[in-house]
Amino acid sequence: MVESKEFLKSILDTISEHIVVINDSGDIKFVNRSWQTFGDENDCQCNTQWEDQNYLAICKSAAAHGDEFGAKAYTGINQVINQQLTEFYLEYPCHSDTESRWFMMRAVPLKLGTTGYVVISHLNITERKIAEQQVRELARIDGLTQIANRRHFDDFYEQEWSRCARLKHPLSLAMIDLDNFKSLNDNFGHLVGDICLKEVAKLLPDYTRRPGDLCARYGGEEFVLVLGNTQCHQAQKLVTRFMTALNTLQLPELAGHPLTVSIGLATIYPSSSDDAMLLIEMADSALYQAKEAGRNQLVIADNIEPLNIEQCP
Ligand SMILES: Nc1nc2c(ncn2[C@@H]2O[C@H](COP(=O)(O)OP(=O)(O)OP(=O)(O)O)[C@@H](O)[C@H]2O)c(=O)[nH]1
């Protein structure tokens, strides 16, 4: 029997999942070598005497310190103990100072005679999580220009609108449309058209550097700048600098033909009761005016004059 116990323990020690077995009160009754090693490598304070620890108390203490995963683990494991769940899964981050890591916890009941236990295993799922993150990132980037796509813009803009409404900050938005792009495509070919789009997109991130800023491809030959907590005159400066940079852009493919844009700029103090489309419509109609006035210019929407911050309620 002793031999077979040793044999089974040796097998559990070869498994890369971290395994801990607790009784119905949460007292730790067994940990495998992976668990022990992970504790040692991560400076876990209780690593030398795991068998003296209470796993549920550890989860509860983590929860009390604001760790939502500690709280979920505590609830889930208790549900397994109380037979409300036949198994419990939890994916959670466990980052070290140097690397991002994620684990999946699985808790299943184990009955030996009259004594109830729970076997809890932790599987490292970092590779899958990183792959998922990369897929998510790709879904937010425009394939041609490598800046944010429309979907990313929609999400970002909605969040920035709410953030500025909450903090009573001004929000500026610039709609940028390449001029006469159809004839550029017709004269120089679509590949040259694509190069122009990429060159414009390369310039834009220089004007959207703050966390509340974003440049995105809005669609076709249209780009958008979101400038959170930015007054109209500040946004005007940024947009004007962008137009100057574009004027000096030399594109050999265009054989001396200048690449110009028309821009509509609008600023608003968002309110949670307003429709976030309002600012987009304002910038859009200013852009329309810029086109009507002969292109290659900036028009600022003047239908809502931004308030001075002190005047805001
Ligand atoms: N090369 C290329 N062309 C595109 C892309 N997306 C949209 N276009 C073209 O951009 C052109 C936009 O044409 P219009 O909407 O008439 O605008 P415009 O010719 O720039 O005229 P104005 O905006 O009034 O100055 C169309 O010919 C589209 O086919 C793209 O990804 N690559």
TrEMBL record:
InterPro entries named among the record's database cross-references: Diguanylate_Cyclase, GGDEF_dom, Nucleotide_cyclase, PAS-like_dom_sf, Rev_trsase/Diguanyl_cyclase
CDD domains, alphabetized: GGDEF (cd01949)
Swiss-Prot/TrEMBL catalytic activity: 2 GTP = 3',3'-c-di-GMP + 2 diphosphate
Domain of life assignment: Bacteria
EC number: 2.7.7.65
Listed SMART domains: GGDEF
Annotated GGDEF domain residues: 169-303
SUPFAM superfamilies assigned to the protein according to its UniProt record, in alphabetical order: Nucleotide cyclase, PYP-like sensor domain (PAS domain)
NCBIfam families recorded: GGDEF
Record protein name field: diguanylate cyclase
Organism of origin: Pseudoalteromonas gelatinilytica
Lineage: Bacteria, Pseudomonadati, Pseudomonadota, Gammaproteobacteria, Alteromonadales
